[in-house]
Amino acid sequence: QTSNSLVLGLLPGSKAAKLAQGVPIMCAIADQLKIHYPDIQFVLPLAPSLTEEALAQYGDPIHNPIVAMMGGITAKLNHTPDRNQSWLETSGGSRIELKTIGDDGPRTPHYKTLRTCTLCITTVGANTAELGALAIPMLIILPTNQLDAMRAWNGIPGILANLPGFGSLFAKIINTIALRKIGLLAWPNIWAGRPIVPEMVGPLTAEMVVDRVRSYFDHPERLETMKTELRQIRGESGAALKLVAIVEELLAD
Predict the structure, then answer these.
(1) Which residues does residue 76 pair with via DSSP β-bridges, in sequence order?
(2) Residue 110: what are its φ and ψ, rounded to 5°?
(3) What's the confidence (pLDDT) of residue 44?
(4) Which residues contact 142 (CB under 8 A, 6 or more apart)?
């Protein structure tokens, strides 16, 4: 594939615990990929619960001290004069287009944007179900560089991890235990019972992720294989698409 035909989707999630690490590392990934593929495009479909301004704060070291830990690449929010377009501009000069309007208006899915992507880098969660149902190649990343920041657990672990004073300690303990027992994370892999889309978990660097992305960009046949396998597990019954619809309904409530 030529550099100007590459579109990388960035899906850092919607919860603060994921965004704090996800936004900085994805900005760093963009800057490094730009070196190898000067004409590559970056798109970030915004989660319905997130504003552009809130997202941009995760690329600002004043609001997000974890930026320094994830490569030190910062990002600033920019708009066109008519505010019809907005983007994050990284400190390395990359432009990450923000998509705030979905297929059918605000707070609706971004399927049209996602279908333009050569590959998506996403965190764990509902995004992996959507991408799997659409048969869009993906790379799942779960940085654990700052275990204390990963407080997005539900139920009792989430309550303990967010307790004043002791929450930091509980968060580290809970995440350490969870990571030891971790299995398949992406919905397509869970559906298939085997890893058909790559998952990267641990103290990740942008360099590590870029190496993996390049292995797909430079060998497009691997992307085609992933697409084929995603279509196969999606199945004729459309079970995956039904699951995505349920997830979207829950998120909209």
Answers:
(1) 89
(2) -105, 45
(3) 97
(4) 123, 124, 185, 199, 200, 201, 202, 204
* pTM more than 0.90: no
Q: How far is CA 210 from CA 8, 14, 20, 237, 253, in A?
A: 12, 23, 19, 35, 36
Give the residue carrying structure tokens 């407080």.
Answer: 151
Residues 43/116, Cβ–Cβ less than 8 Å: yes
pLDDT in tens, 33-47: 999 999 999 999 998
Q: For the purposes of burial, counting CB atoms within 10 Å of the CB of 240, is it exposed (0-12), middle (13-18) or buried (19 or more)?
A: buried
Q: Contact 125/12 with Cβ under 8 angstroms?
A: no
Neighbouring CB atoms inside 10 A of 15's CB total 17
CB contact set of 217 (below 8 Å; sequence gap of 6+):
1, 6, 37, 118, 119
pLDDT tens, position by position, 141-184: 988 755 444 444 444 444 444 545 544 554 555 455 445 546 78
